[in-house]
């Protein structure tokens, strides 16, 4: 007895999608959908400013180093660990309200606080431990953007529900 290959019907196609592990489900012949890509990091945060020169002075005083642009540019990018903090010039009549905060992890939060104060900047409060497991302080830039400098407290686990309170 000869086996026959079924005729191809162009209106009836079987689509096999390879799952992330590359193997089909043998019991049904179906494959699992590929795993969704995961977000790995934030590359950059861009904040608007009405006065680029003033903003560049502020972020430089905090210790950010310029990657691109500068005081007279319409766009400036600073190194922030493996990512970037960007500034973009906005028209004087453009207004924004509080939108949240940018949180930077620093190797020495207390040292960062002392450095900011020594530069004449005014953090909102001295570094403190938070119930969610971080040691942190906040400071507001000249355009009203709130920044937080933090580090995880050793032995504490972060409760993501409370982070940013």
Indicate the topology.
Blueprint lengths: L43 E6 L2 H11 L3 E3 L6 E6 L2 E7 L11 E5 L3 H10 L9 E2 L4 E7 L5 E7 L13
Parallel strand pairs: 1-4, 5-8
Antiparallel strand pairs: 2-3, 3-4, 6-7, 7-8
Keywords:
disordered N terminus; 8 strands; single chain; 165 residues; 2,3-Dihydroxybiphenyl 1,2-Dioxygenase, domain 1; globular
Descriptive account of the structure:
The chain has 165 residues and is of the alpha/beta class. The chain has two domains: 42-94, 2,3-Dihydroxybiphenyl 1,2-Dioxygenase, domain 1, CATH 3.10.180; 97-165, 2,3-Dihydroxybiphenyl 1,2-Dioxygenase, domain 1, CATH 3.10.180.10. Helix content is 13%, strand content 26%. The chain is built from two helices and eight strands. It has helices at residues 52-62, 109-118, and strands spanning 44-49, 66-68, 75-80, 83-89, 101-105, 128-129, 134-140, 146-152. A four-stranded mixed β-sheet has the order 1-4-3-2, with helices on one face. A hairpin with a 5-residue loop joins strand 7 and strand 8. It is globular. The termini are far apart. 16% of the residues are buried. Residues 1-23 have low confidence and may be disordered.
